[in-house]
Amino acid sequence: MTNLIEQIAYCEVPAPITAPAQHPVDLTDDTMQLHKEKILMRMKEEKLDALLVYADREHGVNFGYLVGFEPRFEEALLVLHRDGKAYMLLGNESLKMGQYSRIEAEVIHTPYFSLPNQPMGNTQTFAELIQSAGVEKGMKTGIMGWKLFTSSLEDNDQLFDVPYFIVEAVKNLVGNSGLVVNATSLFIHPGKGARITMNANEIAHYEFGASLASSCILSLLDQIEPGKTEMELANELAAFGQPNNVQTICATGDRFTNAVVAPRAKKVEIGDKFSSTLGYRGGLTSRSAYVVSTKEELPADVRDYLDAVAKPYYAATVAWYENIEIGMLGDEMYHLIESVLPKSIYGWHLNPGHLTAGEEWMSSPIYPGSDLAISSGMLFQMDIIPSVPGYGGASAEDGVAIADQALRQELADKYPDVWARIQARRDYMIHTLGIHIKPEILPLSNLNGYMRPYLLNKKCAFKVNKV
Questions:
Q1: All structural domains of the chain
Q2: Which of 199, 220, 290, 298 has the alpha carbon at shortest distance from 253?
């Protein structure tokens, strides 16, 4: 793949002009019913009598997958039985949300999930409240938070990432004749989880956040100038009051000094390393490069940044975009990236690509030895993070949907505006950037493949010159 690096050109490239989605697409009743049916089917396969789905402010997507909303600042628990009966255990300030649940569920006031020192107003113990949701002796019960505790995709089903008081109560209720297991794999296992593939409605729903994040990042890139502060630039990284699914990053120079992650009043200077990240539900966009116009403005010890880091990284992203396809095994993608961007030289260590949805990272089928195949309906984040000692980072991270012909046709028929944006992005990647993606690859970001390694030169970017 060395030849691919030689094909990467840094030259004048028109910036993408596709407008972001202006209106979100809600999930339909049919989609929400499908979610429940998929989970009930997986419960049947695992012979579970009941499933307890935990949620808090940071980890509410699996809960929301079934009920449609996520806790704003409290905890919550959904108890779903194999016959479809559902209960929601909600704290004081989430009680009113019970009426908006997208599936029928009985609400149980659970003050234990409320904020510190709020009125308890309940004489039942937590275990008694769980029992009132139908959890009984002898049941095989799944508890799920948000993590897969695994190194080989064989779940360690006795590790739980939910509060101890929940696990203790459930184990005491089901007793020795029952069984309690970690059931997170039902939702997010990268080969068989219910959530890893999506229909046209879900793709349209998530395209809103992905396109919005990318347009905000492009606006920030266009505003970068010496003397502006991180906070001034970060003003570009908010839109329509939409919730973020990761910490927003806008950092110039050395990152995270004094353990501060959020943007500060630090001023941009020529020669700075610079990184920016914005994630909404459905997609994240991230860019890292140097605040310079030309090679000569780089610090002397990194003047070869373009050839040493940026071009090889960009070649790897091109290889990722051009080769991902339905049926490709995770192991194949992992070793493809290793062949273009050897880990021993470029220092990346995470999965080169992962599934995404409401959360930024769901799980990933891409790892050494993976026999899991890329499937229609998956949403992927192109996420490769080089780390070469002495150099600033290089990043052009965005997301795509994978869709076979039938799913593409459904998306085009039902969501023509979404489809038009996707087609404009495909056209830009293929005809302007020279990245020849396959028909099943649907760019969800307005910036897929667009990278400026020198941030003060806003006319130039990378592209592929095929030979």
A1: 2-18+195-464 (3.90.230.10), 47-182 (3.40.350.10)
A2: 290
Give the pairing type, strands 395-402 and 460-464: unpaired
Phi, psi of 193 (to 5 degrees): -65, 145
Helices (H) and strands (E) in the chain, counts: 14, 15
Sign, CA torsion 438/444/445/446: positive
- Beta strands at 249-252 and 86-90: parallel, antiparallel or unpaired: unpaired
Q: What's the pLDDT score for residue 151?
A: 56
Measure CA 230 to chain center: 24
**Per-residue model confidence (pLDDT) at position 148:** 86
Q: How many whole angstroms separate alpha carbon 333 and alpha carbon 353?
A: 9
d(CA 310, CA 287): 12
On whether the CB atoms of residues 320 and 374 are closer than 8 A, the answer is no
User: What pTM did the predictor assign?
Assistant: 0.95
What is the enclosing helix (H) or strand (E) of 305? helix 305-305
Q: Which of these, 299, 278, 276, lies nearest to 289 by C-alpha position? A: 276
Distances (CA, A) of 147 to 42, 253, 399: 17, 33, 21
Non-local (6+) Cβ contacts of 338 within 8 A are: none
- With contact defined as beta carbons under 8 Å apart, do 305 and 290 qualify? yes
CA distance 198 to 195: 7
Q: pLDDT at position 119, please?
A: 86
Helix (H, G, I), strand (E, B) or coil at 184: coil
Amino acid identity of residue 339, one-letter, is S
List, in order, residues 6 or more apart from 96 with CB less than 8 Å away. Answer: none
3-state secondary structure of 71: coil
Let me know: does 57 contact 71? Beta carbons within 8 Å.
Answer: yes
Mean pLDDT by 10 residues, the chain (467 residues): 84 94 95 98 97 96 97 95 98 94 96 90 90 97 90 70 96 94 96 97 98 97 97 96 94 90 95 97 97 97 97 98 98 97 95 96 96 98 96 97 98 98 98 98 98 98 89
Q: If you search the block for the tokens 């194999």, which residue do you land on?
A: 82
Give CA angle at 130 (126, 131), nearest 5°. Answer: 115
Cα 369 from Cα 214, distance rounded (Å): 32
CA distance between the termini of the chain: 13
Q: What whole-number distance in Å separates Cα of residue 458 and Cα of residue 467?
A: 26
What pLDDT was estimated at residue 120? 81
* Contact (Cβ atoms closer than 8 angstroms) between residue 446 and residue 20: yes
Residue 193 to residue 189: CA distance in whole angstroms: 4
CA gap 121, 189 in Å, rounded? 39
